[in-house]
D-3-phosphoglycerate dehydrogenase
Amino acid sequence: MHPHFPKGPPVNKPVVLVAEELSEAGLAVLGADFEVRHTDGADRAQLLPALAEVDALIVRSATQVDAEALSHAPRLRVVARAGVGLDNVDVAAATKAGVMVVNAPTSNITSAAEHTVALILASARNVAQGHSALKAGEWKRSKYTGVELDAKVVGILGLGRIGQLVAQRLAPFGVDIIAYDPYLQPARAAQMGVRLVTLEEVLKQADFITVHLPKSKETIGLIGERELHAVKPSVRIVNVARGGIVDENALYSALKEGRVAGAGIDVFAKEPCTDSPLFELDNVVVTPHLGASTHEAQEKAGTQVARSVKLALAGEFVPDA
Ligand code: NAD
Ligand code: MLT
């Protein structure tokens, strides 16, 4: 005979759906107070039914949290983005549905800034090209002659959190830094040793252009055909912000026609991106959206959003992370 245990009421823990990889540290912060479920947020056929009983949803950038997804989540109270950009979350639709949206705005900015510097240097010195050639048994020194950063002009588009960290990290290379950011006070930029100028001036003067803008209606295609006809042919362009801000077709033509000397691209208009005309070009170095992919950044993003989810589900004030 089995011993008889009195049955209490079933304990219904709030359900947190983790739709993309979340750090162990983030899962640990959630602890035992929640029922944590996992799904592949990039796969709509998995995501939509999985939303039915969910109180909180945690995503990175591959999950589109749009009006359709929200309509499948009648219990949803909070969407947490384990990172910076909120362009994959329809914040207006969420707000209309009474769903709070939180992110981890500082979690990966150091990683993104460091990756930007890596792509700038890789592009200046043909690191990836020399590496591939040598591994293929080719010792090509003159073909991969690069350029110095010293005394060059770096143009930063968007002098926000990441743009500022990039400026700080590049300053010791002896570069002159200019930036286009109409929302920033010139005095604030001057404190960092950066001159605020117009977009036209950045295009005209910069030897390196690095993009650190949010993706929005205003910024999609900001660097397109017209702009890529206005740059120096020696310019190298790096985008660790969002795909589509630099128009990929226009960039391809400019690189191919020698109107742009090189590019370092971490983000693509459509991701995952495993097939792009840009991949055919020798003067392009690419990474698969790795800007935030460090252990440190993922731990910070995971723990910050897990804390915000706990506070939001407890009905408490959620401070900016
Ligand atoms: P931020 O909000 O701190 O800075 C953005 C800056 O752009 C602000 O200073 C703002 O004034 C400026 N800006 C906004 N609209 C503008 C416009 N139309 N023209 C000119 N300037 C404009 O953002 P952040 O944390 O620095 O992030 C920058 C970008 O990097 C975002 O797109 C974010 O999603 C992306 N990001 C990518 C990765 C990655 O893994 N590749 C990692 C982190 C962040
Ligand atoms: C971000 O906006 O935080 C980044 O793109 C990082 C990511 O989603 O991996």
Observations:
- The radius of gyration is 23 Å.
- The mean pLDDT is 96.
